[in-house]
């Protein structure tokens, strides 16, 4: 049996199948089409087209059987269990969190997937929680800022106290160093011990038609995490991000609430520079600050849009003292695998974060953040996909590995840990699919791929979506930088081409529009809220559609020898090219 040509022909066959989901069994019999048969003739002269076609047809039938048999009842049961009060909102490093990871292990075991970390299903993730004492002030020149109202501050260093003492302030525009765009906001300034004042988002946002960066779509240079990382690389002691609602895509309340309470981090690896103080200030305070140096914020924002922008030292200095309560804890990524039969050392990865926001025991009434959509739906989704792969009579050529990560809500920590301590070499991960919060509102005409187009892995999703008559489209608000806000990004940062998608932008004509609108409203209102709870009457078929697309995309990728890469001009292509050249 010629596995390589066979795999190719499966892909060709699947490609030619373009029908609606439920009738795919009928389509299977139609599959011995002329188009596929012609390809067979070209690909394999030594066997007759009839023999090859019959072989491929069998594979096609096997695939479609597994595809059709993904069980809705079991999927619902898993979503229901994961989002039940018993799991206490699945906060990492709590009893509910431990219960969740044990449950996932049992589920992967039950569907027949093997341990993915040596002989264990667990990868322990050390976590450090740092809670800054809210009783602090930030002194900027001659103004004293009030915590939470005017500023927030913290440090990712594991220290009980740390301070900035009269640190010189420098306005660095967007604080971006992007060689591929020939852009350096730190040019000619020595930041050692100083504090950078930085605008949020990237220069493409304010002038989407100027042909710089990716226009309105946010690049990683626009994310607040990047701003701190770059300032630290420049040797700065502190960094202050200027909040502005439109370019940040959220209001000040989101900044102040998400910075309150304990913040989780991974233990420092030691070789990553870190700031002493990471801060945000309100737009009003930024106006005041620049005025103290005789500057106008609006004018400086304008200047920062140019490649010729040069950093501007301010006349004032920053002081803040941060006192922390530090606690060490542990949670686990749950990893399962289905070894490939031909190239087991090459992996297709499915990811979903299992954690959510936990509970607030001292709140009255309902106090459990059940996180049903976010992300019981996605976690249950990858178990269904593992089960579907196990329904195939034989394993795919490449290994398929499922990583249910922890501590996403605290800053993608579980996936960051996995990427820093991968259970398989990163250059042997041929592609990754991340599912975070599935669509349960209504069935879609299209399929959203966040950040689209970014990599060739998307072409596999595109093929899979065709079977449901759906085409790929980017998300409706790319300026929010959604691509940098879920777990696949932890892998992308190390060059692994990864797709994050699901749902769509347009409901099918036969979808119940009123129902869709109702669940959409719930999704919006209940995001990170107590009401993100399980509903028996969700439009479950919508989630099943997407699970099938992910299954097929991974199935196709796991049965080729193709190494999909990032498209030219994406942030991660250089890293991938370098990583592919390295020995494993
Ligand atoms: Zn979330």
Task: Write a structural description.
With 584 residues, the protein is an alpha/beta fold. It has 3 domains: 3-63, no CATH class; 69-125 and 330-507 and 539-581, Aminopeptidase (3-Layer(aba) Sandwich); 132-326, 3-Layer(bba) Sandwich (Glucose Oxidase, domain 1). It is 35% helix and 20% strand. The chain has 19 helices and 19 strands. It has helices spanning 3-16, 24-29, 34-43, 49-68, 72-82, 95-111, 203-206, 224-233, 245-248, 252-258, 283-292, 297-303, 372-391, 413-420, 457-467, 488-492, 513-526, 540-558, 573-581, and strands at residues 114-115, 122-132, 137-140, 143-146, 151-154, 161-171, 177-178, 183-184, 195-199, 238-242, 263-265, 277-281, 312-338, 343-353, 398-405, 429-434, 446-448, 471-473, 498-500. The chain has a 15-stranded mixed sheet that branches. The protein is globular and about 80 Å long. The two termini are 30 Å apart. Residues 1-46 have low confidence and may be disordered. The structure holds zinc ion.
* Strand segment count: 19
The first-level CATH class of the largest domain is given as: Alpha Beta
Q: Give every kind of bound small molecule, once each.
A: zinc ion
Biggest sheet: strands, sense, closure?
15 strands, mixed
What is the H level of CATH, i.e. the homologous superfamily of the largest domain?
A: Zn peptidases
In one word, what is the shape? globular
Helix content: 25-40%
N- to C-terminal distance: 30 Å
Kindly identify the CATH topology of the largest domain.
Aminopeptidase
Radius of gyration: 25 Å
């Amino acid at each position: 049996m010629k596995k390589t040509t066979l795999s190719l022909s499966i892909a060709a066959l699947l490609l030619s199948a373009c029908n609606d989901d439920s009738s795919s069994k009928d389509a299977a019999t139609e599959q011995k089409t002329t188009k596929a048969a012609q390809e067979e003739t070209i690909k394999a002269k030594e066997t007759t087209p009839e023999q090859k076609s019959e072989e491929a047809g069998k594979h096609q039938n096997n695939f479609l059987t597994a595809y059709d048999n993904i069980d809705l009842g079991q999927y619902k049961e898993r979503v229901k269990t994961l989002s039940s009060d018993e799991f206490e909102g699945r906060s990492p490093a709590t009893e509910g969190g431990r219960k969740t990871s044990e449950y996932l292990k049992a589920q992967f075991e039950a569907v027949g997937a093997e341990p993915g970390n040596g002989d264990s299903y667990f990868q322990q993730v050390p976590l450090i929680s740092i809670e800054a004492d809210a009783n602090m002030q930030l002194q900027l020149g001659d103004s004293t800022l009030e915590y939470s109202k005017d500023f927030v501050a913290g440090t990712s260093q594991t220290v009980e106290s740390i301070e900035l003492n009269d640190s010189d302030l420098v306005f660095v525009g967007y604080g971006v160093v992007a060689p591929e765009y020939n852009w350096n906001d730190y040019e000619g300034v020595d930041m050692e011990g100083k504090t950078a004042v930085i605008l949020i988002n990237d220069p493409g946002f304010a002038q989407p038609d100027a042909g710089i960066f990716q226009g309105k779509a946010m690049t990683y240079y626009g994310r607040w995490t990047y701003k701190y990382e770059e300032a630290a690389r420049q040797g700065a002691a502190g960094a202050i991000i200027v909040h502005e609602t439109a370019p940040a895509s959220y209001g000040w309340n989101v900044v102040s609430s998400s910075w309150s309470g304990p913040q989780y981090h991974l233990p420092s690896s030691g070789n990553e520079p870190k700031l002493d103080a990471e801060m945000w200030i309100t737009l009003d305070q930024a106006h005041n600050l620049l005025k103290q140096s005789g500057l106008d914020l609006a004018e400086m924002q304008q200047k920062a849009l140019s490649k010729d922008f040069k950093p501007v030292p301010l006349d004032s200095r920053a002081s803040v003292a941060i006192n922390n309560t530090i606690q060490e804890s542990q949670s686990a990524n749950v990893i399962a695998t289905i070894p490939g039969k031909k190239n087991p050392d090459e992996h297709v990865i499915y990811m979903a974060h299992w954690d959510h926001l936990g509970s607030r025991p001292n709140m009255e009434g309902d106090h459990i953040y059940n996180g049903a959509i976010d992300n019981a739906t996605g976690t249950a989704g990858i178990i269904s996909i593992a089960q579907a792969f196990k329904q195939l009579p034989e394993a795919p050529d490449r290994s398929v590995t499922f990583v249910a990560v922890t501590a996403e809500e605290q800053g993608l920590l579980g996936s960051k840990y996995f990427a820093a301590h991968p259970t398989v070499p990163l250059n042997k991960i041929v592609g990754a699919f991340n599912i975070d919060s599935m669509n349960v509102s209504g069935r879609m005409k299209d399929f959203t791929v966040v950040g689209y187009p970014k990599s060739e892995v998307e072409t596999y999703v595109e093929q899979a979506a065709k079977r449901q008559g759906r085409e790929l489209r980017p998300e409706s608000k790319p300026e929010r930088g959604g691509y940098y806000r879920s777990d696949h990004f932890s892998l992308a940062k190390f060059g692994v081409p990864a797709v994050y998608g699901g749902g769509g932008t347009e409901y099918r004509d036969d979808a119940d529009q009123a129902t869709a609108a109702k669940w959409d409203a719930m999704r919006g209102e209940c995001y990170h809220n107590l009401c993100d709870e399980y509903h028996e009457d969700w439009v479950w078929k919508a989630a099943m559609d997407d699970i099938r697309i992910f299954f097929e995309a991974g199935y196709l990728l796991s049965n080729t020898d193709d190494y999909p890469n990032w498209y030219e001009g994406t942030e991660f292509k250089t890293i991938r090219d370098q990583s592919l050249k390295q020995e494993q």
